[in-house]
Amino acid sequence: MTKQRILSGIQPTGDLHLGNYLGAIRNWVEIQEQYDSYLFMADLHAITVPHDPKALADNTRNVAATYLACGIKLEHATIFVQSHIPAHAELAWMLNCITPLNWLERMIQFKEKAIKQGEDVSVGLLDYPVLQAADILLYEPDQVPVGEDQKQHLELTRDIAQRLNYRFGSEKQPILKIPTPLIRKEGARVMSLADGTKKMSKSDPSELSRISVLDSNDTIATKIKKCKTDPTRGLEFGNPDRPECNNLLTLHMLLSGQTQEAVAAECADMGWGQFKPLLTETTIAALSPIRERYHEILNDPGYLDTVLRDGKEKAETIANATLAKVKQALGFAPMV
Ligand code: TYM
User: 3-class SS at 285?
Assistant: First the structure.
């Protein structure tokens, strides 16, 4: 029996943090044996906000190395660079022409990022979810494993695919496959260490708001020591008045691999002075082997070159087949 396919990607805009790890990569690793995985670095997305051209290529390779260091195995997964496959941009153009503008103006992430950019908002930032739809639809995945913040983009992807199928296909012969989001409850929304009501994010100006997957043990310890807590003694999950408490307990639960019940019992009578060293120990135990593997991988650049070359070849075959199907349905003149 052929395996179902999953597809997902991350923007190479700097070191990945615990939100990226727990909301996305950890899930890819856990389910990889059951699926054929296509995982990419969304470098075309990374230029939708002002970026440093000197850092983009390195960031892209570093994210690939992070996927591998976190446990992605090449016997289950194809890893590739989005910009190596022109079909992404080409399909995005075609989807642009059937996507109503007001669908994009409604996107929460656009509104949030546009506020930060002020006058400088690019067309690319508005159009970003259409490119994301192209990324997904090209590979005809069954599932798309992502964190909570991508839910609206996946709903839009489904709407765009349905619109194209309705206009240019038939009920019996849809052109594009409609994908399903795969959002796990735990870790789907990791919050900032500086404010438990805000999402942990690469764009937060404060380094203390996030733990990077590659942070040194000392940096991890410092960030946890300085993270925001509350004045209440005894730790609990799910109290809406204690967002930091819920977030930090959730991190401890996910990084230690324990159940919620076990962690609730373990921490019920603890104060922060006792819990913070425990969380530091758990985080270091989870991340330091990843950091070591990451440096080993980067020390062998030839290996990463091969991974990305092979990935491109395998991914491109699938992407080009879907693109050809769409071009035919839209009525483009075939090349003769
Ligand atoms: P990006 O690069 O912002 O995030 C990558 C993945 O990490 C998840 N994530 C989080 N999960 C839990 N808590 C958080 N605080 C947190 N922050 C980020 C995201 O949900 C995501 O799964 N548009 C995408 C990249 C993309 C993509 C795609 C994803 C481009 N094309 C096609 C899937 C399929 C993005 O910017 O993710």
Answer: helix
Render pLDDT for 29-82 as a digit per residue (tens, 0 to 9). 999 999 999 999 999 999 998 899 999 999 999 999 999 999 999 999 999 999
With a 6 Å cutoff on the Cβ, whether 43 touches ligand 1 is no
SS3 38: strand
Answer whether 214 contacts ligand 1 (Cβ < 6 A). Answer: no
Closest C-alpha among 141, 104, 119 to residue 7:
141
Q: Which tokens go with 48?
A: 């939708």
Query: Which residue's CA is minimally distant from atom 16 of ligand 1?
Result: 19
Buried b (16+ CB within 10 A) or exposed e, 19-34: bbbbbbbbbbbebbee
- What 3-state DSSP class applies to 101? helix
Alpha carbon distance 53, 70 (integer Å): 26
Closest CA to 68 of 332, 302, 298: 298
Whole-number Å distance, alpha carbon 148 to ligand 1 midpoint, is 8
Structure token digits, residue 197: 């009501």
Query: Which atom of ligand 1 is the closest one to the Cα of 199?
Result: 15
- Sign of the four-CA dihedral 148, 289, 276, 255: positive
> Which residues touch 71 (CB under 8 Å, ≥6 apart)?
29
Q: How far apart are CA 328 and CA 212, in angstroms?
A: 45
The residues annotated with a catalytic role in the active site are 113, 199, 202
- pLDDT tens digits for range 174-212: 999 999 999 998 899 999 999 999 999 998 999 999 999
Give the distance (Å) from ligand 1 centre to CA of residue 184. 13
CA of 263 to the centre of ligand 1 (A): 27
Looking at ligand 1, which residue's alpha carbon is closest to its atom 7? Answer: 20
Distance of CA 8 to the CA centre of its chain: 7
C-alpha of residue 151 to centroid of ligand 1, in Å: 10
Nearest residue to 32 via CA among 92, 1, 76, 70: 76
